[in-house]
């Protein structure tokens, strides 16, 4: 199960997330999403746990709890939906 973790402090890294979630079961992968220009954390990440029961337990126990000074948002990750972006400077203008 893929888990979303949000509202992370900038100093939280993959090792911190792995350690936190391993208390609830096996963790396959961890990732903290970083800004492509600055390399700083964007304040959220993802955890992959192969056992659904362990993952659901981790979500229930960690959502709304303090993680290094901030209240974490933890829930099942939803598939990304790419919405079309309006294009350019003249979007919606008539000539």
Q: How would you summarize the topology of this molecule?
A:
Layout: E1 2-6, H1 14-22, E2 29-34, E3 41-48, H2 52-62, E4 66-67, E5 70-71, E6 73-76
Antiparallel strand pairs: 1-3, 1-6, 2-3, 4-5
Biggest pleated-sheet summary: 4 strands, antiparallel
- Regions with pLDDT < 50 over 5+ consecutive residues? none
Termini Cα gap: 50 Å
Structural class: alpha+beta
Find the count of extended strands (DSSP E, 2+ residues).
6
How much is the radius of gyration in Å?
17 Å
The CATH architecture name reads 2-Layer Sandwich
- Estimate nothing, just give the exact number of structural domains: 1
- Any idea what the CATH superfamily is called? RRM (RNA recognition motif) domain
Q: How many helical elements?
A: 2
Which range best describes the helical content: under 10%, 10-25%, 25-40%, 40-55%, 55-70% or over 70%? Answer: 10-25%
Order of helix and strand elements from N to C terminus: EHEEHEEE
Placed side by side, the strands forming the largest sheet appear as: 2-3-1-6
CATH topology: Alpha-Beta Plaits
- Mean pLDDT across every amino acid position: 90
């Amino acid at each position: 199960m893929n888990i979303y973790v949000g509202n992370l402090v900038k100093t939280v890294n993959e090792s911190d997330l792995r350690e936190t979630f391993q208390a609830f079961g096996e963790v396959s992968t961890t990732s903290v999403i970083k800004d492509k220009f600055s390399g700083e954390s964007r304040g959220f990440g993802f955890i992959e746990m192969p056992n659904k029961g362990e993952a659901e337990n981790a979500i229930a126990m960690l959502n709304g709890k303090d993680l290094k000074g901030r209240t974490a948002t933890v829930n099942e990750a939803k598939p990304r939906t790419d919405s079309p972006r309006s294009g350019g400077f003249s979007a919606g203008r008539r000539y």
